[in-house]
Amino acid sequence: MPTEQIVAAFDFDGTLTRKDTFTLFLKEISGQLEYVKKVIRLIPILTGYQMGWINNTLMKEHVLTMFLRGRTLHDLLKLAEQFGQSLPQYLRPEAVNRLHWHQRQGHLCVIVSASLGLYLRPLQAILQVDHLLASELEIAPTGLITGKLIGGNCYGTEKTRRLQSLLGARETYLLYAYGDSRGDRELLADADSPFYRVMP
Question: What is the pTM of this model?
Answer without folding.
Answer: 0.92
